[in-house]
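Practice set, problem 2.
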Amino acid sequence: MTLQEDPAYGGRWAGDSLDREERSSLRRVEGLSTELTDVTEVEYRRLRLERVILIGVVEDDMKAGEESLRELAALATTAGSQVLDGVLQRRPHPDPATYFGSGKARELAELVAATGADTVIADSELSPSQRRALEDIVKVKVIDRTTLILDIFAQHAKQREGKAQVELAQLEYLLPRLRGWGESMSRQAGGRVVGGEGIGSRGPGETKIELDRRRIRRRMAKLRKEIAQMGNARQTKRASRRKNRTLSVVVVGYTNAGKSSLLNVLTDASVLVEDALFATLDPTVRRALTRDGRQYTLTDTVGFVRNLPTQLVEAFRSTLEEVADADVLLHVVDASHEDPVGQVTAVHEVLAGVAGALDVPELIVASKADIADPVALATLRSRFPDSVLVSAVTGEGIEKLRTRIEELLPHPQVAIDVVIPYDRGDLVNRIHEDGEILHESHEPTGTRIVARVNPDVSAAVDALGGRP
């Protein structure tokens, strides 16, 4: 199983238990049937996942296909469903008509009937025609990996910006997949006849599907405007941090890799921690201090996954831009996972779409070292020799990680040796906040400080004239 069985939450790393309890109390009730009695309703109702069967097509690497299907099972579990079975078919490419071949599709229909499943989830994106044809064969709802991930995001987003981003992604995905059902979807008595144009000017009028598309496009335009406005506020905050030269560390990584647990240990952030994929979506920013007194921010970002829907990447682009402005990237990798290197590759593929993200200094952090296989750890260290092994539960490697963060953060460039009068405590405080203190002592005439500071602080010291 991709997720651990019966995780025990305790300690600083575990975050807020109230959020976790609230989320678990909203699980879907088993036994509510979603079998298609009226297929016309499938696009217009809220997704309800209960008892599901997973399917996938593999070209040649069955091991990779099995790993991908296990990850899909974890996604389905996170969405609140019960996974009954999984089926893989080896073929050069998915069938353009029914995804599975016609014979395998009939076998799938028999499996659905035998297990009492009410949903089939495909491990790749389905075209509208593939989904429709497969539904006609298996007689239950069919969705794909993208729909499943969008549903999880819709469940877990809490902040206004996150909700707007998820809704926009859902609408972008839904728009080309709307379909009508003959005359019952049309609106007659349209055209120019209502304007008195007479015989021969009658038209079919606007169909319901056209009306739905127009409403969706209008809603998407409104959401894009709102997200742009919220993005401006985020840019203003980033500009303020740059103006104040606040150092920034951004935590990135695969979903469920342990990012929130690590943030809780480093900053006492109380971020929700749950053994589930995409447990936290809304970015969290906390302040931290280096041992020499310099302030920096730690930002937790949305987790990544293989084949992350392009709609989500575009919708969350304003959030991902935090990565490009960072001074250091903490790339958290689940060391207990069967394919940690594959996780690193998946994250880099997403970051490649964010301008400047791959140019930021990166530190690989192998989390969950307390439950990882020693052989797998050795393999990971051989691939990434500068990585740091940590465990948020036991505290292993946390101090070493703090040290590595301090080493990677940019250091002030100007060296000063200054005596500051005791009535200028504001300047002493500024040096402590923005500079790197090497020596400090109290002299009869004031506080003597040997430090490295930024040019603007150096200019303030020169104006004071307090150099010995």
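Problem 2, part (b): a different protein.
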Amino acid sequence: MATGTAAQKHRRTTWHNWAGNITATPARVVSPASVGELQEAVRRAAEEGLRVKAVGTGHSFTAAAATDGVLVRPQALAGILSVDRAAGTVTVAAGTVLKDLNRALAAQGLSLTNMGDIMEQTVSGATSTGTHGTGRDSASIAAQIRGLELVTADGRVLACSEKEHPEVFAAARLGIGALGIVTAITFAVEPLFFLTAREEPMGFDRVTAEFDQHVTENEHFEFYWFPHTGNCNTKRNNRSQGPAAPPGAVSAWVEDELLSNGVFQAVNSLGRAVPATVPAIARVASRALSARTYTDIPYKVFTSPRRVRFVEMEYALPRERLVEALRELKAMVDRSPLRISFPVEVRTAPADDITLSTASGRETAYIAVHMYKGTPYQAYFTAAERIFTAHGGRPHWGKVHTRDAEYLAGVYPRFGEFTALRDRLDPDRVFGNDYLRRVLGE
């Protein structure tokens, strides 16, 4: 009996991310019910010489959260901790899932200004890797942070903001898990508002020719290009007086099933099994789209469910380089034997002041390429990455890329500022792992 109990006690559990392309087998998994328990877990791991990583819902495609040491699941540290209506802020525990936060804020008549296109991530996981939406004036979730707390390598809780430890605040809003484990985040929020969304099919040549105009004229502009076609779908989201007028049943089915979930799953499975069918499928899918307009509260417009699993690479380019790079990507796909069943997504962001934000210090446009789970993606991503890096691209910290510290130091002017702070806060690399060694150096 004792032998069996010991074996069970030491049996390792394998963790894998949402896409299934990253796995890790930690020495142990902890789920702290309080910040004090988290502090103790970090101190104990450091004494034992084990690395510590916090993992959210696994929506990153990189090994940013992987560890063979102590894996921290912060999901018990969840919920809104306080609301300051006068200051326009809300403080939430780090394990709070964005879906729960958005719904709770809406119930109180509040909203984030901008968000990404899914809301399954924890707030700390989303901000630590640079999750963003699209926006002329606002984009990343991390840029909406007004303060945060994190447990450092020595087990202390460090609070930071623009006024308190500002050098830590500048970096830790998007810390890739390298500076500590975030326990609470204070976001700027505003009174709940309405967005009117207009979706419209548009040719590739037209949307690229008019790209700057669309970005300038709309608060939130993005588009999807369907490889193997000259077809795109554009989305413009702008504030309106309301009232709510959600999508009708037919248009909701087209968006949620044909392009995102059930039917899209079947189409991708066929494309994986018979790649030759992909171009014809892409032409049919892209032509199935029609213009539609609807109005709703922000998270219902910005986000949508995503059940089809995929692997993704995304690069942030100087905004003025976007059109040239996208045309090069299309030309590469057109002349190659590649068969791409997922649309390519294009979004924008204003410059921000976060040390390692993909939009740090420059107006930014994003190109995201995807491949259906289980489909070989290396050839496509390698060819795309070659184009993106030639334009000074910065890879999304939570999505597939092959860049290392030497490259990243060249595209982030404040890279040395971040690594110096890491040396100060975590000299023994308690929060280190193979991914951080590659992207930040030793």
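Answer key, part (b): The chain is about 35% helix and 25% strand. Residues 1-10 have pLDDT under 50 and may be disordered.
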